[in-house]
Design a protein that fits this description.
homodimer, Butyryl-Coa Dehydrogenase, subunit A, domain 1, Butyryl-CoA Dehydrogenase, subunit A, domain 2, seven-stranded mixed β-sheet, 17 helices, 9 strands, globular, flavoprotein (chains A, B), flavin adenine dinucleotide binding (chains A, B)
Chain lengths: 594, 594
C-alpha cells in the first residue's frame, strides 16, 4: 500500500468552494480568527503529522496490538503510539476546537472534522485515544460544575490527561435501561461506584498521566430503566496521586482496531463524582454520543479514502490481461488493471462515496459551528435540527459505505488483498466496528425514522428537503445540471411520499417503522449524496476553464457515475420499503430453525 | 456461538423433495447402489464427523494458525488437524466420489456436495486440505496416463497422499499467460521445473506422507501466452523416498483461513512429469478449476449456514429492548432481540440466501452426475451446458451472499460480534477469500456474460431459461403460487431483453460487456434463486397438513421474504446495467486522483 497522502486539495474544494465556510465562520462570535489561512495552516500541519507520524504506525500497531499486564492492570500500547501522542499534544491538537477558557484554541468544528478524517485514514486505532478523550471533554464542558471544569478540562485540553466513556455492561449495550452498576453516596459529596463495564475503547493505556472515566451508574432508589441512570466522573488517579479502584480487568481480542485498548473496566467501590443532575446521566452522555456518532461516520469516511488511495495506486501498477477493446500499454507484458471496467467500477464507488461523505460531514460541521455560536436563536435551531436529522445518516450511511469501499479496495488487490502485509484487509477489519459501536447501524435507522422524522411529523425532514427543493428550483433552467437536477427532484418527491406512507403504516403498526428503518436510512443517505453531487457538479461547471480542468472535470464525471451506478439502489429501496413489515414478522420464532 | 448442527432435514428436503435425485441417480450406470438410504447414512456419518471433530477445531485453528520451520521447510498444522484428517481417511471420506477402479466409493456428486457444505460450515480452513487434494485427483484422473493414474490415484483416494494446485506466481494470478515457471526436459521422460508459486493453498503440511503438486510451467520454445502452458506432476517425495526439490519458502499471513497453509512454493529444478498434452496445461487445470469454483461457492454457502445458526441462537437469547408493539416476554427484563424487525431482516436474509444456495448446488451436483454418467449424449450435453452456465453464478453469487450473510450474523451480535471468542467475525474473515480466489468474482462475471452467454449467442442461457419458462407455464393457473410465478415470469422476460440489449451494445463496444458483467451476474443469480424459491414453495404447499407444517410453512414464508426483500435488488441492477459503460470509462486515468 502506498503512503497516505492527505486530500488537501479536496478539503479546500469542500470547505471553500462547495460549503464556503468562510462566508459564515469569521462572522460567528469567537471564530473571528478562523480565516481561510488559519484553516490552511492547521490542515497542512495535521496532514504532515498524519502522513509522517500516524500512518507509518498503522500496520505495525495492528500486528503488535496492546499488551495487558494482569498483575499491575497496566496496558502498554504498540511501539510508537505513546511518542506520537506526546507529539500530538506538543503540537496542540487536543486543544484544537476546545474552549479558550480552559486552554483551548477555540477553532471551529469545520476545521476539526477534516483533521479527524485524516487521523482516521492514517491510523483509526490511534485516533480513538484522543477521540474518546475529546468526548469526555465535551461532556464535562457541557454538564460539569465550575469546579469540575476547572479541575479536569485544562488537563484534558492539553492532553496530559485522557478520558473515556463507560456505558456498556456485559448484558446491555443498546438497552442501557438494563444497566446495573451502582453508585452509593459517601456522605462527602463523592460516590462509591461498583460494577463491570465492557468494550471501553481507550479504556486503559500508557499515553497519559491520568485517565478520566465517565461512568454511567445507578444511585440508590433510582427509578428503573433509563430514567434512573446518572453520570459520574471517576479518575484513575486522585488529586493526591493515590490510585482509585477502577482497574482494567482484561483487553478484548478483536477483529480489528487491535491497537486500540478495548478494556473491561472493573469498578470496585471506585470514588466518583456526580456530573449533571441525578438520573439525567443518559442525556449528559448523549452530548458525547452524538459527537461520537459523527466520529464513527468519519471513520467510515477516512478508511474509505485510505482504501481508495491504496487501490488506485495498485490498479495503475498491477499488470494483468489486456483491455477488452485492445492493447492499452503495448510496451508492457499486460495492461494496468485500471483499464478494466469492473476495476473502475470499484475505484469510482470508493471515490464517489468518499467525496460525497466529505461534503456531507463538512456541511454538518458548519451546522455544528452555527448551532454553537450563531447569535440568532432561530439559526441555531435550524442548524441543530439539521444535525439531529443527519447524525444517524452520517453514522450509518458513511460507515456502511466505508465498509463497502474498504472491501472493494481489497478486491482490487485480488489475492494480495487478503495478505496482511499489504494493509488492505486491515482497513476492512478496522472499518467493521464502525457499523456496530456508538449504536449499531440498525439503531441509527430507528433513531432517524422514529425519533428524527416521525416524532415531529416530519418537521425536521421538511426543513432539510426544502433546501434541496430550493437547489432544484434555482437550477431548473440549467441545461448542464439537468441530468442531476431531474433525478434529484424526482427522488425528493418520492421521499416525501414514502415518508408519508411509512408514517401512516407505522401509526397503525409500529413494526412497520422498524421494518422500513434500515432501507429508509439508505434512501435518505442517497438523497443527501445526490444533492451533494449535484452541488459539486454545479461548482465544478463554474470553475471549468480556469486552469484546473482535470480536477473539476473529475467532479462532474464522478457525479455522473454516482447518478448512473450508485443512486439506482433507491429503486430497490423503494420496493423493499413498500413491501412492508409482514414479510419480516410472519415467520414464527420456532420456524426460523426449520 | 452454538455448536454446529448439520441441516440434515433440509438436505433431505432438497435432495428428495425438491430436486428428487432418486428419480435420476439409481438409473445412471454406476450409481445403482446410491439409494436414498445410502445417501442418508453417508450424510449422517458426515454430520457426526463435522459436528464433533471439525467444528470444535475451527476457533482454536484460527488462533493457532500454521507453523513454518524455515530450517526444515516443514509446516505444522494447528493442534488436532492432523488427527482429524487421519480419522477422515479412516472413515473413507476422501474416496467418497472417487473412481472404484482406484479404490473410490463411486458415489455421486449430489451426495458429495452436501458433505462438502458441512465441512465448510464446520471448518472451512480444514476442509481445504482434502478439497485441494480432490482437485488433484480429478485432474490426474481426467488427464493422466494409465501409469500416472496407477501411481498416484490410489494414494490420493485413500488420503495417504494429498495434492495441490500450483498456478499463481507473484506477477500473475488472473492472467496466467504471464506465467514464467520453466520445465526443461531431462531426456528420460521427466522434466526439471524451476519457478516460484504463491498462494498455494494446503501447499505444505504435516497431514499426509506425500504431497502431489500439480504445477503449471512452460516447456522450452513453448508459445507465449496461455497457449504455451503445460501441466506437470511434481511429488514432494519420489518413489524411492528421496526428497524432490519443491520446498515451501514461506507461509502467508492472512486475514482469514489462518489454519490453512497458504504457501510460497519454490521449485528449484524439481523433477516432474508432464500430464496431458504439451501446451494444453490450462485446459487440464480447468478440470480442477471448475470443481474448485463450485467448491468456493460451497464455502459461501457453508459459512452462511454457520453464521445463521450462530446468529439465530443469539437472537433468541440476547435480551435487549422491548418489542415495538409491546412487551413480548413479560417475565424477562427485556425481550429477545429476535422480536425486532431489523434483526429478523438479517436472520431471514441469511436463511433465504442459504436455503436457495443449497437448492442451487444440489441441482448443479445432479447435473454433474448426469454429465458424467448419463447414457444419452444429448442429456449429458444439456447437463454440461447448465453446469457451465451456472458455475460462475454459483461461485460469485453464493460467495457474495455468503459474505453478506456472515456480516449480518456478526451484526446481530452487536459489539460481541467483533470479539474473536464468539466466532462470528472469524466467519467473516474466512468467507472473504472465497470472493477472490479461483478467479475473482469480477472474473466470474466476465466468464458468465462473455464466454457462457454471449459467445454462443445465448444458447446455453436459453436452455436454462426454458426450464424456468416451463415451470411458470405449468403453474400459470396455480393461485397459491401466483405471488411467485408472476414476478418470476416478468423477470424472465426482462432477463431476455437485457441480455439482448447488452449483447448488441457489446458487439459495438466490448467494454459494455465488461461494465455490465457484475450486475448481470447478480441478475442471473436472482433469477435462479427466485426460481428455486418458487419451486420450494410449490413443494411446501403440496406437503402442508401432513404433520410437518412448521417446516413447510417456513419455506413458504421465507419464499415470500425473498420475493419481498431480496429480489427487489434487480430493480437497481436493471437500471445500472442500462446505464452502460460510459459512466465507468469516462474518467481519465490521471483524473482518478483528483
Amino acid at each position: 500500500m502506498p503512503a497516505y497522502k492527505a486530500p488537501l486539495r479536496d478539503f479546500d474544494f469542500v470547505l471553500n468552494e462547495l460549503i464556503k465556510v468562510q462566508d459564515v465562520i469569521p462572522a460567528l462570535p469567537g471564530y473571528q480568527e478562523a480565516t481561510q489561512d488559519i484553516y490552511t495552516s492547521y490542515l497542512e500541519a495535521a496532514a504532515q503529522f498524519c502522513e509522517n507520524e500516524l500512518a507509518p504506525l498503522n500496520r505495525p500497531g495492528d500486528e503488535e496490538g496492546c499488551h495487558f499486564d494482569a498483575a499491575t492492570h497496566n496496558v502498554t500500547t504498540p511501539a510508537g503510539f505513546k511518542e506520537a501522542y506526546a507529539q500530538y499534544c506538543e503540537l496542540g491538537f487536543p486543544a484544537l476546537d476546545c474552549d479558550p477558557a480552559y486552554g483551548g484554541q477555540g477553532m471551529p468544528k469545520s476545521l476539526a472534522f477534516p483533521v479527524m478524517e485524516m487521523q482516521c485514514s492514517a491510523n483509526v486505532a490511534w485516533s480513538m485515544y484522543p477521540g474518546l478523550s475529546h468526548g469526555a471533554y465535551s461532556a464535562i464542558h457541557a454538564h460539569g460544575s465550575e469546579e469540575q471544569k476547572a479541575t479536569y478540562l485544562p488537563k484534558l485540553v492539553s492532553g496530559e490527561w485522557t478520558g473515556t466513556m463507560c456505558l456498556t455492561e456485559p448484558h446491555c449495550g443498546t438497552d442501557l435501561g438494563l444497566l446495573k452498576s451502582k453508585a452509593e453516596p459517601n456522605g462527602d459529596g463523592s460516590y462509591s461506584i461498583t460494577g463491570t463495564k465492557i468494550f471501553i475503547s481507550a479504556g486503559e493505556h500508557d499515553m497519559s498521566a491520568n485517565i478520566i472515566h465517565l461512568v454511567l451508574a445507578r444511585l440508590p432508589d433510582a427509578p428503573k430503566d433509563v430514567k434512573g441512570i446518572s453520570l459520574f466522573i471517576v479518575p484513575k488517579f486522585h488529586d493526591d496521586g493515590s490510585r482509585n479502584s477502577v482497574y482494567c480487568g482484561a483487553l478484548e481480542h478483536k477483529m480489528g482496531i487491535k491497537a486500540n485498548a478495548t478494556a473491561v473496566i472493573n469498578l470496585d467501590g471506585a470514588k466518583g463524582w456526580l456530573i449533571g443532575e441525578p438520573n439525567k446521566g443518559l442525556s449528559c452522555m448523549f452530548t458525547m454520543m452524538n459527537a461520537a456518532r459523527l466520529g464513527c461516520g468519519m471513520q467510515g469516511l477516512g478508511i474509505g479514502e485510505a482504501s481508495f488511495q491504496g487501490a488506485l495506486a495498485y490498479a495503475k501498477e498491477r499488470l494483468q490481461m489486456r483491455a477488452l477493446n485492445g492493447v492499452h500499454s503495448p510496451d508492457k507484458p499486460a495492461d494496468p488493471i485500471i483499464v478494466h471496467p469492473d476495476v473502475r467500477r470499484m475505484l469510482l464507488t470508493q471515490k464517489a462515496y468518499t467525496e460525497a461523505g466529505r461534503a456531507l460531514t463538512t456541511l454538518l460541521a458548519l451546522q455544528l459551528d452555527i448551532e454553537e455560536k450563531h447569535p440568532d436563536s432561530a439559526a441555531r435551531q435550524d442548524a441543530a435540527d439539521l444535525v439531529a436529522l443527519l447524525t444517524p445518516v452520517a453514522k450509518a450511511f458513511m460507515t456502511d459505505n466505508g465498509y463497502t469501499a474498504a472491501n472493494m479496495g481489497m478486491q482490487v488487490f485480488g489475492g494480495h488483498g487478503f495478505i496482511r502485509e499489504w494493509g488492505m484487509e486491515q482497513l476492512v477489519r478496522d472499518c467493521r466496528i464502525s457499523q456496530i459501536y456508538e449504536g449499531t447501524n440498525g439503531i441509527q435507522a430507528i433513531d432517524l425514522l422514529g425519533r428524527k422524522v416521525l416524532l415531529d411529523q416530519g418537521q425536521k425532514l421538511r426543513k432539510f428537503t426544502k433546501q434541496i427543493h430550493k437547489f432544484c428550483q434555482t437550477n431548473e433552467g440549467n441545461d448542464k445540471l439537468a441530468e442531476f437536477v431531474g433525478p434529484l427532484s424526482k427522488l425528493l418527491k418520492e421521499v416525501g411520499d414514502i415518508t408519508m406512507a411509512v408514517g401512516m403504516a407505522a401509526f397503525k403498526d409500529k413494526d412497520e417503522a422498524g421494518a422500513a428503518a434500515t432501507d429508509y436510512l439508505r434512501l435518505i443517505g442517497h438523497l443527501t449524496y445526490a444533492w451533494m453531487w449535484a452541488r459539486m457538479a454545479e461548482v465544478a461547471y463554474a470553475k471549468l476553464g480556469q486552469g484546473e480542468d482535470d480536477f473539476y472535470q473529475a467532479k462532474i464525471t464522478t457525479a455522473r457515475f454516482y447518478y448512473a451506478k450508485l443512486l439506482p439502489e433507491v429503486e430497490a429501496l423503494k420496493a423493499t420499503i413498500k413491501n412492508g413489515a409482514k414479510p419480516l414478522m410472519s415467520l414464527g420464532e420456532e420456524q426460523f430453525a426449520c
